[in-house]
Amino acid sequence: MRHPIIRHSARPVYTFAGIVNAIEEAQNRGLKRITMRFADFIVKPSKYAGKMYVFSHDKEVNQWGTMSNVYLGWITSTETNLGEVDLIKRVQSVAADPYSAAKLYGQNTGTCSCCARELTNPLSIELGIGPICREKFGL
Question: CA–CA distance from 126 to each of 48, 104, 121 (Å)?
């Protein structure tokens, strides 16, 4: 009796390294409470090395009764559990050049992509990110 050949479809490989590397750089430089805000989503490190959580800008009441951003899924440099194909494409697009996406967010909102503080210095406004965050995130 011949055994059937079981073919496993290859798992897709994604490219999120730009975001993961920027957050890990900030961690290596000792930054605490790390967050990167972009036009369509927010990224924060998880407690697991190399894994980042992705949130929407929308808020909901969490299990402790406080407001928090809506969890969308996680990313690593090459994997994700984000379910929406369009969101995966947007995250990959940001990961290709996180500094430009952070800059655009800062210019559009008037707040730093990393710390959410108001940008007041003319150079910071032009660059869309504050000087401390630029240095700490290696952007």
Answer: 35, 10, 9
